[in-house]
Structures are given as C-alpha cells and as structure tokens.
Amino acid sequence: MAVQRLPLQNARSIQQPSSLGLYIHIPWCVRKCPYCDFNSHQVRGGIPEEAYIDALVADFEQDLAHVRHRTVHSIFIGGGTPSLFSAEAIERLLHSIAARVALASDIEITLEANPGTVESGKFDAFRRIGITRLSIGVQSFQDDQLRALGRIHTVADAVRAIETARRAGFENFNLDLMFGLPGQSLHDAEADVLTAIELEPAHISYYQLTIEPNTLYHRQQPELPRDEAMWAIQRCGQAHLAQHGYGQYEISAYARPDLRCRHNLNYWRFGDYLGIGAGAHGKLTDADGQYILRTWKVKHPREYLRTAGTDACIGGRQSVPPNERAIEFLMNGLRLNEGFDVPLFTARTGLPLACMEPALSGCLEDGLLERRDDVIRCTEFGRRFLDEILGRFLPTESLQAG
Predict the structure, then answer these.
(1) Span 20-266: which CATH code?
(2) CATH code for the structural domain at 287-393
(3) pTM above threshold 0.90
(4) What count of Cα atoms within 13 Å lies in the side-chain half-sphere of residue 74?
C-alpha cells in the first residue's frame, strides 16, 4: 500500500522540536569487525588526535548558524572507538562546544567504549571531564564468539571494564549485547543475557546480528541460527530482561526505570540533532522556512581533516520532501514500544494523519498496529514485522496541490 495523494493545502505547520542533540563521530578502531558497516577505519600509524579535535571544532562552528539560540540536551560520542582518544582531547572538545552553545543543566553525555581499549584510570578521567554515561561494546560473554566477531577483548577484559566503570562512578552505563551469533545455541545466548544482567548495568542494548552489505560477513557469510531458533533466542532473552526489571522501550533497548537513553529517544521521536565528524549525519527543522534539512559530512577521515569547517566538508544537504516525512517519522516512532501520539506526528511532519490512509487502516485491521485515543503503536505481533509495516506506507507519488 502507498500513502495516498495529499493536497498541500491540507498540510499543517512544522513545529521546531524543543530538544536538540549533538552526535560526534570518531571513526578509528584498533580493528574493523567483520559485521560492522559503520564508518570506521583501522588505526594505521597512529591517530591524529589533536588535528581531529581541531577539525570537529571547525565543523561545529560551521553548523552553529542553524542552532545558535537553541540548547543542546544530549551529546553522543560514537564511532569507531571514541575511547581510543585521551580524556584531555575529549575535554578540550567539550569545552569548545560549551563555549559556543548553551548546554542543558542536566545534559546527558554518552561516550562509546570498547573493553579492549580501556586503560587503567581512563574511566576516572572520562567521568571527571563530564561524561555522564558510557556505552560499552561487550557483544558476547564467550571468548570463542568474541574471536569469531573479530573483537579485540576477552570476557575477562569486559568484566574488568565494567567494574572499572562502576568504581569511577558510572552508575548509568549501557552494555551492547548481540544475539543470533554464528553457531549460537539457545543455551549460550541465554548465558550471555544472564551474565549481562548479573553485572547490573542501567541499560542493555540487546540486538540481533544482521549481515550488512560492504562487510566481511557479507562476502564470507557465516552460518547463523535459523529463523525459528533466532525467535526462540530473542524471546528467551526478552523474558529474562523483563523478569529482572529491564523494561523494553524500543526494538533493541532495555533499561532500568528512568534510565532510558535520552539521546536515542530524541532520534526515535523525530527530534533535531547536529552531526559533526567524518560521515556524521544531522537533521534540523526550520519552522520559519517550513522545511526539514538533513545533512551529512564527508566520510573518509583524511578528506574530513582536510576540509572541516568549509563547504567541501558537506557530503550532502537534502530537504525532506512532504511525501517522505511521514515514512521517516514512522521509521523512528514505531520502533518505540509506546509508539507515538498523533499531535506529535503532525507537529514534526506538518502533515495530518489522513496522509497515512489507507495503509494505517489496513495495519490496524491486520493486527499489526493498535490505536488507543491519540496513540498509535505496534502490537506485540506487529513488532516482529516492522519492515513489512513500513513497506505499506512507502510513498509512490509526490504530494501535489489539489
């Protein structure tokens, strides 16, 4: 099914989101994992740390015109492996940002870290410079799986990193944990989840390994559990997480009460965010001009370092046309267990709910979606088939004046 043709005079005004996030990309890793399709590059001959921080500051300054009078509510430093950088370099970056834009008094600042790059005392320094949340890429608590996944850490390294983070004062930290790994049994997957729960993180990202294009796993595909086994693994893990107080609030996100990731919630609610760093993406709403702008920076670190702060650093700019706003909103909003409310849909997209007919009615009738008052969300059944749901809403015609 497709979004019906919607006369433009039925459109509403886009409202600028009150929240604003900042994503910072650091693209280097010790080793490229065979499943990873992120913009990451293996370290060869050292990292140009100081030059890259200078480039990030120049990049941020160029974007300031879009957000100078807004407040940043969350910062997420991802990669790559940001924990390869020194705390001193990250501190200089954060100070430069704070000198140029207002930061919320309760700002959430997340740093991704891999257990194999954690030196003694490094988490202490990260905590001291203002990092409020860590996301630790464990992926598995079995050494043979870690080797198969190309990880540079061991189970002992992972446990030690978690203990180090807690001693440094990080009570709010996430563990990344994958399931559906090559040759993984239900017993092994269950053991991974139980080990993660025993370590008592505030948040667990529990997600299925998928084979992505342009990865080693895509060229040399490993044998993964079959669909029925994969579903049994997922259900088992979800049951343990729920039993131990980790509420699922998004497809792959589980958190203790009041410790959901605010930065990612902003994405899923179709909020605004800046993106700086090699390959970083941003989304900004211009309420005066009534458009939504997506931007992305050049991907290769060498090109980024050479052009940061200039127009040549912009990999692309694209205004999201009206007939694509609905599907972009749904791709995010339907990931949340709570779904979205209709007024938010209209405020973020400038479109009435009618633009989603007849696909919406079909999904409701088929038990894929449910509506309670002004809230629309996936049913438990529908969450298994999100791609199919979204496919029903894909636009095939541009919005035209009636």
Answers:
(1) 3.20.20.70
(2) 1.10.10.920
(3) yes
(4) 22
